[in-house]
């Protein structure tokens, strides 16, 4: 088994939205804002490679939205999902499984693309099975008013219509349980219903894909929550439990949204878990 860090593109979000009630004077130290109060955000994915499987965890914003839509998010840099896969020697058609931590547009937008004539949508990974949690699918396709703008029907319905959608059912805590490529799943309900965090054993380390439970290094402190969380008090409980375990068991946190830090470890302090060391993927595993 081999792992690859895949950069699917960068964008910007409002720093206040990403840190909620935390004062800017604090979060600006780790996530500096520009003149519009926007901070750098990545859409970093993880690719799991074996002889007959190629599993992609999340896939970024995609390319099918309108120019008006993308203008809200200030895309920057030269990364793209297709190019990053190509740089690793792969094509979109090689992907066998797409595992989506949750269905907010910045995590699953790359799942679906325009067809050749731009008359409709089609799966961007034509040979892949798409995986989401069953209860989360219901949550996303019947969205609450708070999350409605994050669950886009053009991302979701074509998955179902394609016949390529499959479900991880409630109570299943491992993906591909009988496979060498299987990994444990931590469910977290504070950000959104049944967000799934992969825990992958790799080269004698436990690598955790933190998704939106811990979006960036700046969010390691337990009270530093995004305003996008639907149940912020629950997020605090989930984060505290996870971070304490991560520090104790020396997990390596893989950041999906930190544009400047790929991986970190934690240390236990009197104030709770705090940043220990940061690493690039290549220096840690290659």
Query: Any idea what the shape is?
Result: globular
**Rg (C-alpha, Å):** 18 Å
| Euclidean distance between termini CA atoms | 13 Å
SS strand fraction: 25-35%
Major beta sheet summary:
7 strands, mixed
Protein structure class: alpha/beta
The count of DSSP E runs of length 2 or more, i.e. the number of strands, is 15
Mean pLDDT: 96
Major sheet: arrangement of strands = 9-10-11-12-13-14-15
Q: Please give the count of helices.
A: 9
Structure explained in plain terms:
The protein has about 290 residues and is of the alpha/beta class. Helices cover about 25% and strands about 30% of the residues. The chain has 9 helices and 15 strands. The strands form 3 sheets. It has a 7-stranded mixed β-sheet with strand order 9-10-11-12-13-14-15. Strand 12 (about 205-210), helix 8 (about 230-250) and strand 13 (about 250-255) form a beta-alpha-beta unit. The longest helix has 18 residues, at about 230-250. The model has no long low-confidence stretch (mean pLDDT about 95).
Give me the secondary-structure topology.
Elements: E1 2-14, H1 15-19, H2 24-27, E2 38-49, E3 54-57, H3 67-71, H4 81-87, E4 97-99, H5 105-108, E5 112-114, E6 121-123, E7 129-133, H6 134-141, H7 153-162, E8 165-168, E9 174-175, E10 183-188, E11 195-202, E12 205-209, H8 232-249, E13 252-254, E14 263-269, E15 272-279, H9 281-285
Parallel strand pairs: 3-4, 4-7, 7-8, 12-13
Antiparallel strand pairs: 1-2, 2-3, 5-6, 9-10, 10-11, 11-12, 13-14, 14-15
């Amino acid at each position: 088994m081999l792992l690859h860090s895949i950069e699917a593109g960068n964008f910007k979000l409002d720093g206040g939205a990403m840190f909620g009630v935390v004062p800017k004077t604090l979060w600006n130290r780790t996530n500096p804002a520009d003149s519009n109060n926007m901070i750098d955000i990545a859409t970093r994915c993880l690719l799991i490679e074996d002889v007959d499987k190629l599993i992609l965890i999340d896939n970024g914003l995609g390319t099918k939205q309108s120019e008006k839509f993308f203008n809200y998010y200030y895309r920057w840099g030269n990364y793209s999902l297709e190019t990053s896969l190509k740089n690793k020697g792969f094509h979109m058609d090689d992907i066998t499984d797409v595992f989506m931590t949750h269905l907010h547009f910045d995590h699953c937008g790359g799942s679906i693309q325009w067809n050749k004539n731009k008359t409709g949508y089609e799966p961007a990974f034509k040979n892949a099975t798409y995986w989401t949690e069953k209860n989360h699918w219901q949550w996303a396709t019947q969205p609450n008013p708070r999350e409605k703008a994050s669950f886009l029907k053009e991302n979701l319905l074509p998955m179902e219509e394609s016949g390529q959608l499959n479900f991880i059912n409630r109570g299943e805590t491992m993906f591909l349980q009988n496979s060498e490529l299987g990994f444990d799943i931590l469910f977290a309900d504070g950000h959104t219903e049944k967000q799934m965090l992969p825990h992958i054993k790799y080269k004698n380390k436990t690598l955790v894909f933190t998704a939106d439970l811990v979006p960036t290094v700046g969010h390691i402190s337990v009270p530093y929550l995004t305003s996008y969380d639907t149940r912020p008090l629950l997020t605090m409980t989930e984060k505290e439990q996870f971070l304490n375990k991560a520090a104790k068991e020396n997990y390596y946190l893989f950041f999906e949204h930190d544009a400047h830090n790929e991986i970190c470890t934690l240390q236990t302090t009197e104030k709770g878990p705090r940043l220990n060391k940061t690493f690039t993927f290549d220096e840690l595993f290659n």
